[in-house]
Amino acid sequence: MALPLLFLFSLLLQAPLHAQALQNITLGSTLTTQGPNASRISPSGEFAFGFRPSDADASVYLLAVSFDKITSKTVVWYANTNTTLPVGSQLQLTPGGVLSLQDPAGTEIWNPRVTNADHAAMLDTGNFVLYAKDGSIKWQSFEHPTDTILPSQELPKGSVLQSRLMDNDYSAGRFQLSVERDGNLRFYTLAVPYTVAVSSLFRYDPPYWDSHTGGNGSSLVFNTTGSIYYTTNSGRQINITSETLDSPADFYQRATLDADGVFRQYVYPKKAAQISGLNTEWKVMDVLPRNFCRAAAVETGSGACGFNSYCSFSFNTSKSVECECPPNYSFIDNERKYKGCKQDFPPHSCGLDDTESTQNFKLLPMNNINWPFGDYERYSPIGEDSCQRLCLTDCFCVAAVYYNSSCWKKRSPLSNGMEGDILGSVFIKVPRTDIPGSQSASNSNRWRKEKRYWIIGSSLLLGGSALVILYFGSYRVIGRKKPAQIQSMSPEALPLRAFTYKEIEKATDGFREELGSGASGIVYKGQLEDEFGTGIAVKKIDKMLQESEKEFAIEVQTIGRTFHRNLVRLLGFCTQGKERLLVYELMTSGSLNGFLFCGTRPTWNLRVQVALGLARGLLYLHEECNTQIIHCDIKPQNILLDENLVAKISDFGLAKLLRTNQTQTNTGIRGTRGYVAPEWFKNIGITSKVDVYSFGVILLEIVCCRRNVEPETADEEQAILTYWANDCYRSGRLDLLVKGDDEAIFNIKKVERFVAVALWCLQEEPTMRPSMLKVTQMLDGSVPIPTPPDPSSFISSLQ
Questions:
Q1: Annotated binding-site residue? 540
Q2: How far apart are CA 734 and CA 724, in angstroms?
Q3: CATH homologous superfamily of domain 310-431?
Q4: Which CATH number fits domain 450-585: 2.40.50.140, 3.30.200.20, 3.30.450.40, 3.40.50.2300?
Q5: Which of 39, 623, 689, 738 could share a disulfide with 744, CB 3.0–4.6 Å?
Q6: Which fold, 18-143?
Q7: Cα separation of 539 and 243, whole Å?
Q8: Which residues hold ATP (predicted)?
Q9: Known catalytic membership, residue 633
Q10: Comparing 162-166, 353-357, 418-422, which segment has the lowest mean pLDDT?
Q11: Considering 68, 633, 642, 741, which one is annotated as catalytic?
């Protein structure tokens, strides 16, 4: 009997804390923001009700219902206080039966307006309930949903789901699902900001989805089998989502009106929640509406994304909404993209005559992008050239659309921008860069006032047996027989300024201040004599081989045609005599090398944004620009930061340029010690996957704020970061990888996601590495990440 009694005694010792978690909230009970009394757990342990740290700021809290067995602790209901709660806030069920949420000063923030409750309980369905003494329900969270509906939940007429403002901001957002009292189920866009009161909402009409059931609609139902449907008075069921589960009991389920306005049905395998350390993502089963960007377009308001931006959405791939700015525009707030984009140049002055307008501005074609509303003039019949000229000379016109011999002019701000199959041609007005001989050269510099500045980082190779490469002559343009000549390029084909050597010599004060040097030459700091004193970095190319000389025009062409917020911008060039110089804008925040390894650890959120920016820049080079570019030397020194610490890829001189119908090429070894992909040392073709490999190394460096190779490290196992990260990931001890980094440990879920992505990028077999499109989707959480295979070798990191 000794063993059974000992076992029973051990259970009794553990009982108080567990029982406290499962017991009801009784009269006089209090929940606090911290400590063991912060929450109550449902009987099965699957749901928790209570205080939890905010996703955006761990020092403030939410009162919420959340899944408790999964790593992400996903929130499914929250007290809609429109504000977060400081430490010291508390929830009381008063002796009088009132549930009251109070701040540390005792001021009431929220209550469900119920009196004489007897107790409260967290149920296994995810429903938090206040009961009367006789056991009847006085209030339940299922009848007051926020942005999520759960299996067994039903939304009757008059119910709404309100999206969050952002994924990590629980303020009331821009979208609403409404079970209308007239019998229709509708999705609306809303004007923000506003207060929580329904009377303050302004719903843009028409809705972006409508059941069109008239007075026959009844309620929205999420049944336990995983079906979501809208019922009618006659008993008919209208399917809202079409996907079903073979064994719904094996999955956690939810459906959420997300911050981007899309209604998504999610599932999460329960078996994954039972494996310690396994961080599985929610999988999207189905979405509504399927063509979100087009559906959310309304004549009043900005549409799916903010003003002056455009929306892209793919139902078949990521099922995520992406908002982007057009060229020469940037987000007003990079963290809150719903605020839209602003021009990065002074607007077209109405004081300019027609000649000055055409000298200072041009129309840039926007392929498969349109802003369908906001027209203020139409001309028909008319030719396309005349349409463009009318917009160029009109100070009110910011964009023009030409289709079927008709021309529409649009004014600012542009609204309802979307990507897709667009009929006709769309053009957006942007400033010209300086054109040699133009009388308006100084005017065309005005738009640079708000541009970001950069400093070209050192291109010195890391110690050891560095790879010696010449800047030009190490790449070729596949399939081209005759290099283009700069002299024959039109300003439209090459919107760059041709500097004289004397201009650059004067701007750099005789090449006095050196910023860095590398195998290709030296980089100098300078300043243009324009009205803004634009800072520049001049790369002076030396040691140029004769073959490389012939390729200089192609190199300048390629760089000049690239435009992305995560790429360094080339301003001009010099080809006078034997001189070959490239002129870039100066960036004052230096390189990623200094940012990560200067001794002061940058914040976690800032590192995340740098990683995402680098990924998007590589995605553009590999898949989105006209000529595919393989960089071939991705390393921290070649990632520069603007004054807002936005990551920008620099130094395309080592790039491998491919035409769109080619995918690989053979060449000599290029790159930098510690970042070189294994295939450089094998007799196989080189593809864009060499950049993916280098990105994987840098991603780990960003996560850990340390160099890939640190031979001086006391613990030999930690000397090679790629080895160490793999070991930590396989053993489920990523906390050791980011030891001492409190922010990273608090965001350990995202750390695990980033490390898993990095390990996929570091696969020795190139075909096993994901594309940069897949990488960006995995990083932002829009697609699940399978467990990466254990790489057979990381030895190439040391070559």
A1: yes
A2: 10
A3: Hepatocyte Growth Factor (3.50.4.10)
A4: 3.30.200.20
A5: 738
A6: Agglutinin, subunit A (2.90.10)
A7: 56
A8: 540
A9: yes
A10: 418-422
A11: 633
